[in-house]
Amino acid sequence: MSAHAGLIAGGRVSSAETDVEKIAFGKIFWRIMPFLMLCYVVAYLDRVNVGFAKLQMAGDIGLSNAAFGFGAGVFFVGYFIFELPSNLIMHKVGARIWIARIMISWGLVSGCMVFVNSVPVFYLMRFLLGAAEAGFYPGMILYMTYWFPSYRRARVVCVFMAAIPISAIFGNPMSGYVLQHFNGFHGLAGWKWMFIIEAIPALLVGIATPFYLKDNIKDAGWLTPEEKAIVDAKIAAETHTKKDAGPRETLGVLRSPRVWQMCLIYFCFVLGQYGLNFWMPTLIKTAGITGDFHIGLVSAIPYIVTLVVMLSLGLNGDRMRERRWHLAIPALLSAVGFVVAATSGNLVLSVAALSIAAAGTISCSPMFWPMPTAFLAEVGAAAGIAWINSVGNLAGFCGPYAVGFLKQLTGTNVAGLYLLAAALVLGAAVTLSIPSKLVDR
User: Fold this and answer.
1) Among 5, 6, 140, 417, which residue's CB has the most CB atoms within a 10 Å radius?
2) Which helix (H) or strand (E) holds 17?
3) Under a CB-based contact definition with an 8 Å cutoff, are residues 212 and 36 in contact?
4) Is-contact 302 359, C-beta < 8 A?
């Protein structure tokens, strides 16, 4: 393992770490993180490509702005209902089998979007897609706690969540290209071809998952016995020393004020994230870009900015071992971006403002998760992560629907973008109310 590889894998590591520890965590990073990122790129593409489908689907099935917002968001209703049990099952049966099941299920449902021919069927398929994908994201967060201690987790989660901008950087132009150039091919609309083509990677990666991932450190044949012992001891020691600041049993999650505080923070940030992601193609089109492929290309720009900002924040947050301001500042900057995007009539300024908004709000998620995982452990971690993600992701329903409803009510995007900005300001304020000693690790 080169020094360069060790730096990328772990950022700036503690001086107390031995060379063996650095090498071990470097091995873990390069073994599992590229594959986890690939899984999330595929997941996010299938989750938000409906924003591009809207450009053609709206006319084909009579989809209003409010109906689209509702359908885009109803994904998260299915996600919410099945999230907690899904994550608990994964904790019991192991990551390999359950993640594979999730990916294959959502790949099949995503491909079946080709059969959407009315608004009610659109609602149903989006709900089923959310139910199929339930447990994937918190399962991935939980899986990373099995391999990385908290002082490495922000940069690891940031690398994982770099899949969001990466999926948009490559997926947005691809979606626009398929919409524009496959429209009418073999008698199918471009948006139907998009769903078919983009469902295939989920099936292939899902099939590969149980053959590639390992459920725990002891099964990692690519680590030496000494490396296994060191990594296992690091994680076990951290779990043992976590303060009893959060629930340790499943039912305790529902009674913990701290967990509900985390739910509110995450709800605010998810509201901004999905309110933007599902409507990005429409916002770019409104700004003056024409042609589905050109919309895809321009809408990739904010995500290129996001990728750089997200990785920089993760590295700096772990280096300083500071969580609250690394979360609050991006949220506040994103709020400014939404306000400028809402009021600007200039194409270049609008794209720049959307870039700031995207970089801030999407960076909030990876900067958020090291906070609850700093005080949740064992069964409490499995249940707490799932519950926070479930409640927070209800904003994935509220955000797109509210933006669509307000756009239909007022005829502009202004009120919807102001709403997203207000949510981010609230999330930042609640974040700063958390005691630093609880989360700064």
Assistant:
1) 417
2) none
3) no
4) yes
CB 299 within 8 A of CB 281: yes
**How far is 405 from 402, CA to CA, in rounded Å?**
5
- Token digits for 108? 């099949």
Structure tokens at 175: 């979606």
Find, among 269, 266, 267, 262, the residue nearest to 247 by Cα. 262
Domains of the chain in start order, with CATH, are 19-217+226-439 (1.20.1250.20)
Q: Tell me how far apart the alpha carbons of residues 166 and 180 are, in angstroms, rounded to a whole number.
A: 22
Indicate the angle between helix axes 153-161 and 136-145, nearest 10 degrees: 150
With tokens 């924003």, the residue in question is 51
Are 302 and 355 spatial neighbours (Cβ–Cβ below 8 Å)? yes
User: pLDDT tens digits, residue range 155-199?
Assistant: 788 788 888 889 989 988 999 999 999 999 999 999 999 999 999
What torsion do the CA atoms of 198, 204, 206, 208 make, to the nearest 10 degrees? -150
Span 1-37, pLDDT tens digits: 333 333 333 434 444 567 888 899 999 999 999 999 9
Q: Are 420 and 338 in contact (CB under 8 A)?
A: yes
pTM more than 0.85:
no
Report d(CA 126, CA 171) in Å as an integer: 19
Note whether 283 and 148 are within 8 A (CB): no
**What is the three-state SS of 356-367?**
HHHHHHHHHHHH
User: Exposed (0-12), middle (13-18) or buried (19+): which is 430, by Cβ within 10 Å?
Assistant: middle
